[in-house]
Amino acid sequence: MATAHYSTFDRLRLPAYDNQKQMQTGDLLFDREKCKECGVCVQLCPGGCLLADTATKMDLISGKAKGGKYGVPHVVTMRSGATLCIACYDCGAACPHGAISIKRNFNPGYHFKRLTQTSEMRYPKRY
Amino acid sequence: MNVKYEELSPLGTYEEGMPWNPVEKIIVERRSIRSFKKEPLPDSMIRRILEAGRFAPSAGNSQPWRFIVVKSREILAEMEKDAIRVIKFFMFFLDYTTGNRVRRIIARFYAAVLIRILPNELHPVPFGLMSQIAQGKTPVFHAAPILILLVEDRRGVSNPPMDIGICGQNMVLAAHSLGAGACWIGLIKVLMYLPKWRKKFGIKYPYKLDVCLAMGWQKPKADGPVPREAQVVEWYDKGLNDPPRTTKQGE
Q1: B27-71+145-217: which CATH topology?
Q2: Closest residue, chain A, to B97 (C-alpha)
């Protein structure tokens, strides 16, 4: 079986949500050359965890930030080093320039461990 | 990135490796849309989408659902405000990932207890989302012009929540195939802590409200294929005592 092992210890222990060692949070790679700094990804991020230099998600939704370039976005990292990104890739699906790629996918530990989902990311395949 | 396919396969046929047919295309390219234009969908279109839900399969044909369409801007704004208020209240006690050190250490104890009681509602993903909402960094209902509340009749056959899921997904796919966008929102649960909203929508036994759909025109268009984790699949296709063969779906 290629599935991950889930022990009693795993089941009983809750990961600390802000600890990168216990909970692998997602991370993204922004291609600085392809990025046109349009802010689409910042606006679309479900958790509001992308940040551009001059605009936040709420600015873009409420229309406070208008037009222009917002700077190459980045994933917000907490003090502990963990992010809130779960690599859902909504940003990447919407990016008109294809500038975003997944650097690290989301993989919570211990109690929430993923078992049959492997860490390889694949596009839909036509069998 | 929005992908343009040069051709789509006709419905009702299959050949190995053929291009997507229109239904599959909608399924693989559907993304949860969280950014909408201000103007709502026309009423006739909402009714067409509801029709897809009405014809969803359900256990024993019990159809354990009731639909509520919320279009009023005032009500939507009020719902957003109250949802944020409830989430802020909970996160004040639970959020051990922000604030000063003393607060974080104390909160961690009872957060752990509550996470054990509600492991699904307080999974790391919604926990992080609620933390962001409490800090005012992201909205709850994404300023959607329409909410369709999927109210569950708890007296349904077998497993009513699953029927609600099937019904809702039918509507989501219908909406995307018509060019609109939709997103499942489970956080409407927090409104059910307030008697005001339970009364307003008539949520008392046998009804239960766990989930709703935000709908509207996409702004910007965000549908498109994304990579997902490859899955390990077991195939039992030999004898009774033979071990299963495994494949990686997506490889």
Answers
A1: NADH Oxidase (3.40.109)
A2: A18
